[in-house]
Automatic annotation (TrEMBL):
Listed name of the protein: DNA 5'-3' helicase
Compositional bias per record (Polar residues), positions renumbered to this chain: 223-233
EC supergroup of this enzyme: isomerase
Pfam families per UniProt: Helicase_C_2
EC assignment: 5.6.2.3
Biological source species: Rhipicephalus microplus
Localization of this protein: Nucleus
Location of the region described as Disordered in the Swiss-Prot/TrEMBL record: 201-251
Residue ranges of every copy of the ATP-dependent helicase C-terminal domain listed in the record: 1-158
UniProt xrefs under InterPro entries: ATP-dep_Helicase_C, DinG/Rad3-like, P-loop_NTPase
The UniProt record lists the keyword Transmembrane helix: no
SMART domains, sorted: HELICc2
Names of required cofactors: [4Fe-4S] cluster
GO annotations of cellular component type: nucleus
């Protein structure tokens, strides 16, 4: 993630994105205060809940995070807290990690001895897609929630086993696009239809997992209106242009 952020800053992409949305980055250190501050800042911008006198006409926020982190597995981004999740690549565990290597060898040995366990490679792939499915599900948190799930990896269009490894509710509506413009047209149509048909809910309470006792500004409480749609729009993009894609998402 650091390399990607640095590249975007060097190429000017970061500045273009920042003109469209507030950008927050998941802290690397396991510091509760810094994490809570970052997340409260993100939710405030995503939901348009600012401190008195503060104005921001960019509309929404962009949160950069890693798989197997607090953001991708430990927080809910229901309703307008997030309307899109973009994943880049497949989060396979580090093949050079000693524990990963030993686990793969152990499973292979147990399989040869007649035990009913997954082969080492099967276990390895399962860990990757478990993390991917966890991340993709962050913005679909209840039956009436909706959002776009965007998977950027060409392997999903070439190898059926990768699509089959996705959660069933994602596979049922999976669409693969060969060209970037086709993907963008589908994404825009989906977002515009949902935003036009359903009124945005207001945050009822602080997002789960965030400590409201810190010194950062906290989201105010309010009523939550429900939505009557249960639909996702998973798509694959093969173009490295991100500006237009993030401009289409309301949060």
């Amino acid at each position: 993630m650091n390399k990607l952020s640095q590249r975007w800053q060097n190429t000017g992409m970061w500045g273009k994105l920042e003109r469209l949305k507030h950008i927050a980055i998941e802290p690397q250190k396991a510091d509760s205060d810094s994490f809570d501050c970052t997340m409260n800042e993100y939710f405030n911008h995503a939901l348009g809940k600012y401190s008195d006198g503060y104005e921001d006409d960019r509309g929404g926020a962009l949160l950069l995070a890693v798989c197997r982190g607090k953001v991708s597995e430990g927080l809910d981004f229901a309703d307008n807290s997030a309307r899109a999740v973009v994943t880049i690549g497949i989060p396979f565990p580090n093949v050079k990690d000693i524990q990963v290597d030993l686990k793969r060898k152990y499973n292979d040995q147990q399989l040869k001895s007649g035990r009913q366990v997954m082969a080492g490679n099967s276990w390895y792939e399962t860990q990757a897609f478990r993390a991917l499915n966890q991340a993709l599900g962050r913005c679909i948190r209840h039956r009436e929630d909706w959002g776009a799930l965007i998977i950027i990896d060409h392997r999903f269009s070439q190898q059926p086993k990768f699509q089959n490894a996705l959660s069933k509710w994602i596979r049922e509506q999976f669409q693969c696009f060969r060209y970037y413009n086709e993907a963008m047209d589908s994404l825009k149509t989906f977002m515009e239809a949902k935003m036009k048909k359903f009124s945005p809910p207001r945050c009822k309470s602080e997002p789960r997992g965030i400590d409201p006792s810190n010194d950062c500004s906290i989201l105010p409480a309010g009523d939550t209106s429900s939505m009557s749609v249960n639909q996702t729009e998973p798509i694959e993009l093969s173009n490295d242009s991100c500006e237009e894609m993030f401009a289409s998402s309301p949060s």
